[in-house]
Amino acid sequence: MVRRWMIVFAVLLFAFIAVVINDAVKPYEMVQAADVRIHKETIVIDAGHGGSDPGKVAIDGSLEKDINLKIAGKLRRELMERGYDVIMTREADRLTQETGSKQADMRERVRMVNHSDAQLLVSIHQNSFTDAGVCGPQVFYHEASKEAKALAEVMQEQLNETLNIAKPRVCKADHSYYLLKNTTITAVIVECGFLSNETEAGKLNDDAYQKQLAACLADAIEKYEQESTSQRECGQDGNIVDENKSGRDL
């Protein structure tokens, strides 16, 4: 009889210990799973020009370098709130190499990007043209990068739709832009609008419109990341592929 009760007690004790351990492990597993879900990539945001290089001068006298920095700052906040790590090439009104030349500044921006652990580069700029009627944002990418083209297409579509562009532009391939040509990660240049157009210059200087632009670009990045992840996990025919064999075309 005593032996039977000892066996029953041992079984109950084992079951109790198993329940305690399981309850202790579950929260840890849930935290680990949550960490995996919220982990996102690192993005470099490049605010074009700065310091002694004003960039384009708007029809109202405002400077491209200032608008670039404001939009870049708002984009950084948007992305950080969504769980991304962000690296800025500049955070003040200066060149990255203020005592050097424009060429030295561009080389430093490229160095910063290529020595980062980032996966994407978004360079913020403003456009200008002799015809003051021309307007609308446009995204540029290097012609040799399939990934950059995919990102540019998503961004261009998001900008056209969200900002209700009357005459939507299409993203454009390029082979000569120094930043696109010399960086080793997926990179795009976003010309947010035309400073030579009076109406658009006014919008680009408006805080609310800058926030809308930043949110739009962040939405596009998230959409691109989702599509990119899906394509890495599944082939075009829907078959599962080895993620380690589906690296990006940079």
What does this structure look like?
Helix 2 (64-81) packs across helix 7 (207-233) and helix 4 crosses helix 7 (207-233). It contains 7 helices and 6 strands. Residues 24-37 and 237-250 have low confidence and may be disordered. It has helices at 2-38, 64-81, 102-114, 146-162, 178-182, 198-204, 207-233, and strands at 42-47, 85-88, 120-127, 138-142, 172-174, 186-194. The chain has one domain: Aminopeptidase (3-Layer(aba) Sandwich), CATH 3.40.630.40. With 250 residues, it is an alpha/beta fold.
Descriptors:
single chain, 250 residues, alpha/beta, Aminopeptidase, six-stranded mixed sheet, 6 strands, globular, disordered C terminus
Topology record:
Elements: H1 2-38, E1 42-47, H2 64-81, E2 85-88, H3 102-114, E3 120-127, E4 138-142, H4 146-162, E5 172-174, H5 178-182, E6 186-194, H6 198-204, H7 207-233
Parallel strand pairs: 1-2, 1-3, 3-6, 4-5
Antiparallel strand pairs: 4-6
Outline:
α4 crosses α7.
Q: Give the helices and strands as they follow along the chain.
A: HEHEHEEHEHEHH
Average per-residue pLDDT, rounded, comes to: 85
Summarize the biggest pleated sheet. 6 strands, mixed
Tell me the total number of β-strands.
6
Strand order of the largest sheet: 2-1-3-6-4-5
CATH fold topology: Aminopeptidase
Query: Structurally, how many domains make up the residues?
Result: 1
Structural class call reads: alpha/beta
Distance between the termini: 75 Å
Uncertain stretches of 5 or more adjacent residues: 24-37, 237-250
CATH class: Alpha Beta
CATH architecture: 3-Layer(aba) Sandwich
Helical proportion, percent range: 40-55%
